[in-house]
């Protein structure tokens, strides 16, 4: 990550005051003198540099987990499919929910759950940002198939339906908010969750965001679904702040508000 992008990551809190709610500002906090940004992995896709990173405070605690997406990637949307897999720094993997990020480009959209009121809700150009809580070596073993096991009540996030029965290979079963089933509004973004085929563990968070919304160059907040029981002792975020930084013409996807979960 170049110095300009690193300065942007460190300066997120400076921009926050004019952009976000009091709760979001509190979650982000102000960087201290001993805070540092640690870079994970970077990749160049369609001429745009994508990066994973984290903010770590003076006590060695991860306070932000981020992903940088230049707007040029949105403007020059790659063909359909997975376009990047980027690991997070070791301290993120060891102390938080996150292991790596995988970005999918969907220029023609993709199929929508047939139980939805709007049968083509996700049939518009968008990106699927998968933030995985398990390593790539486990993701690649996830099979295709139909699995009808239900998620235990304490492991299903509030206001989320049971996951779809179909397991997408190297991905798993998708789980949407119950509100998505009846929604007929103009779709812009949704936070999905993912479960392993046997419904035992929520192994990814997935902000799905339309190209239309990203091209507006606006910042927004997505709430992170939180189960009562995750099935693993770690630190888990409360919000995903999607911050557009005009200085770098890039988006920062920043997970904040980390609290213990088991």
Describe the structure.
It is a single chain. The chain is of the alpha+beta class and 262 residues long. It has one domain (3-257). It is built from 7 helices and 16 strands. The chain has helices at 3-10, 12-16, 22-28, 71-75, 90-95, 136-139, 211-215, and strands at residues 36-45, 48-56, 62-70, 81-87, 100-106, 126-132, 145-146, 166-167, 173-175, 189-195, 202-210, 220-223, 234-236, 239-245, 250-256, 259-261. The strands form 4 sheets. A 6-stranded antiparallel beta sheet has the order 1-2-3-15-14-12. Strands 4-5-6-11-10-9 form a 6-stranded antiparallel beta sheet. The radius of gyration is 18 Å and the shape is globular. The relative contact order is 0.17. The model is unreliable at 3-27 (pLDDT under 50).
Most strands sheet: 6 strands, antiparallel
Number of helices: 7
User: Rounded to an integer, what's the Rg over CA atoms?
Assistant: 18 Å
Secondary structure tally: strands: 16
- SSE pattern: HHHEEEHEHEEHEEEEEHEEEEE
In the predicted model, the low-confidence regions spanning at least 5 consecutive residues are 3-27
Strand content: 35-45%
CA distance, first residue to last residue:
33 Å
Residue-averaged pLDDT: 91
Shape: globular
Percent helix range:
10-25%
- The assigned structural class equals alpha+beta
How many distinct domains? Answer: 1
Strands of the largest sheet, in order across it? 1-2-3-15-14-12
């Amino acid at each position: 990550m170049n110095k300009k992008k690193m300065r942007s990551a460190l300066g997120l809190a400076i921009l926050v005051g004019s952009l976000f709610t009091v709760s979001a500002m509190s979650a982000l906090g102000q960087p201290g003198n001993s805070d540092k940004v640690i870079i994970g992995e970077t990749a160049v896709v369609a001429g745009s540099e994508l990066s994973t990173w984290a903010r770590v405070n003076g006590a060695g605690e991860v306070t932000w987990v981020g992903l940088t997406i230049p707007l040029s990637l949105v403007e020059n949307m790659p063909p359909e499919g997975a376009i990047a897999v980027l690991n997070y720094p070791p301290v993120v993997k060891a102390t938080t929910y996150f292991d790596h990020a995988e970005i999918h480009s969907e220029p023609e959209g993709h199929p929508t759950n047939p139980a939805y009121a709007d049968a083509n809700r996700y049939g518009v150009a968008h990106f699927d940002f998968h933030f995985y809580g398990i390593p790539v070596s486990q993701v690649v073993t996830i099979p295709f198939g139909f699995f009808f096991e239900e998620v235990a009540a304490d492991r299903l996030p509030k206001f989320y339906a049971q996951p779809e029965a179909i397991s997408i290979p190297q991905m798993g079963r998708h789980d949407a908010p119950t509100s998505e089933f009846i929604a007929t509004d103009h779709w812009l973004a949704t936070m999905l969750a993912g479960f392993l085929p046997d419904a035992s563990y929520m192994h990814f968070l997935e902000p799905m965001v339309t190209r239309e919304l990203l091209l507006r160059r606006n910042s927004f907040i997505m709430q992170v679904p939180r189960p009562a029981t995750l099935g693993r002792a770690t630190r888990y975020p409360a919000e995903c702040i999607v911050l557009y930084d005009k200085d770098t013409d890039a988006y920062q996807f920043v997970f904040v508000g980390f609290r213990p979960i088991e």
